[in-house]
TrEMBL record:
Origin: domain of life: Bacteria
Domain (Ppx/GppA phosphatase N-terminal) ranges: 44-359
Species assigned in the record: Thalassobius vesicularis
Coiled coil residues, start to end: none
GO molecular function, one term: pyrophosphatase activity
Spans annotated as Disordered: 1-25
Identification of the protein by name: Ppx/GppA family phosphatase
Compositionally biased spans, kind Pro residues: 16-25
């Protein structure tokens, strides 16, 4: 006997709608846009406790500085690519009704003779007003973005931001700051590297330098060297020569209590390769600590792959394969100068620094542990 068909069989199920998440209040939103030599990146976020919550983001390789090394100008093609990306950013800002924002450009626009014309063109075609910031502010923003990764045991800190057109290094002495307050002392540097009359124990900036060599500009300088290994060695030694004016370069540093924080696509790519990630995962990379031996092993594997192998390696990616060896050359030079077992990987940088600086200045971040 066939089983009895239950009542309602064959009827269309009633949809069960989950409540839509409440859109964030536009009055609480902040935006930060970083237009570098190679990439255009933006974050839209709202403050949450002592951190912030990302509402929307954008990242695109635009190669704004392509050809800049030889011509001194931004090319028509690179400006066209960049403006297309900025139009998308403008649409996101408009959709979220963001009022508080900082939209900054860095080394490529600092160096290009036609940068002022480009800024006007961006304003005319997208409505966005870009601001060209100086190297000191760029370095300062990179430093405060890394504040949550600073160990309370760190006495001497080196923050390195490897960009497309320049590399910023900042050396900070934290020895006079109480341990639990050290990350917060880094955050206070948003007001300047040498704040006056601070009521709190201050992080002391021993020295900082902006080297006009990043992954794109360093690669372009040695494009004529055909041998892969020779080109890598020349790039690394050439970068080290440019550190001679950096005060800590001349002095040997104690390993105990010393921490390097590296923020850049190079550092995060090396970390992803070390972890063997087939698909990039920020939660596994940001804050990871790597030894110099682990980093050296990854760099040697890149050299063994050669240009063809690197191009097809999923850990490196299509956007980065042409730039990874110049970035690795910079990283190797730094580890040669300051050998350490405490290199912290930061998947954060200028955008996060811009957000922290705006929110801290407005007093909307809670004063508590990161």
């Amino acid at each position: 006997m066939a089983p009895k068909r239950p009542k309602g069989a064959g009827a269309f199920p009633k949809p069960v709608e989950s409540p839509a998440p409440n859109p964030p209040d536009p009055a609480e939103l902040y935006a930060a846009l970083d237009l570098g030599t190679n990439s255009c990146r933006m974050l839209i976020a709202q403050p949450k406790g002592s951190q912030f919550h990302v509402v929307d983001s954008f990242s695109k390789s635009v190669q704004l500085g392509a050809g800049l090394e030889s011509t001194g100008k931004l090319s028509r093609a690179s400006m066209g690519r960049t403006i297309q990306a900025l139009r998308i950013c403008q649409q996101k800002l408009k959709r979220h009704k963001v009022q508080r924002m900082r939209l900054v450009a860095t080394e490529a626009c600092r160096r290009a003779t036609n940068a002022a014309d480009f800024i006007k063109k961006v304003r005319r075609e997208t409505g966005l007003q870009l601001e060209i910031i100086q190297p000191e502010e760029e370095a300062r923003l990179a430093v405060i973005s890394c504040a949550p990764l600073v160990s309370t045991r760190t006495e001497q800190l080196l923050v390195v931001d490897i960009g497309g057109g320049s590399t910023e290094l900042v050396w900070i002495d934290l020895s006079s700051v109480p341990r639990r307050d050290r990350p917060r002392a880094i955050m206070r540097l948003h007001a300047g590297f040498h704040p006056q009359n601070s009521p709190f124990p201050a992080a002391k900036v021993v020295d900082w330098i902006s080297v006009p060599l990043g992954v794109a500009t360093l690669r372009d300088q040695f494009n004529d060297v055909e041998d892969d290994a020779a080109r890598f060695a020349l790039m690394s030694w050439f970068f080290e020569e440019n550190l001679a004016e950096f005060t800590p370069y001349a002095n040997e540093q104690a390993r105990a209590g010393f921490q390097i924080v590296g923020t850049s696509g190079t550092v995060t790519t090396v970390a992803a390769s070390h972890l063997g990630l087939k698909r990039y995962d920020r939660t596994k990379v940001d804050g990871l600590r790597m030894t110099s031996d682990q980093i050296d092993k990854v760099i040697r594997s890149y050299l063994d792959l050669g240009p063809t192998g690197r191009r097809s390696d999923p850990r490196i990616g299509q956007d980065r394969h042409a730039l990874i060896m110049s970035g690795a050359a910079i990283l190797q030079a730094l580890l040669r100068c300051w050998p350490t077992d405490r290199l912290s990987v930061a998947d954060r940088g200028l955008r996060e620094g811009l957000l922290y600086a705006q929110m801290t200045a407005d007093g909307v971040l809670e004063d508590g542990p990161f």
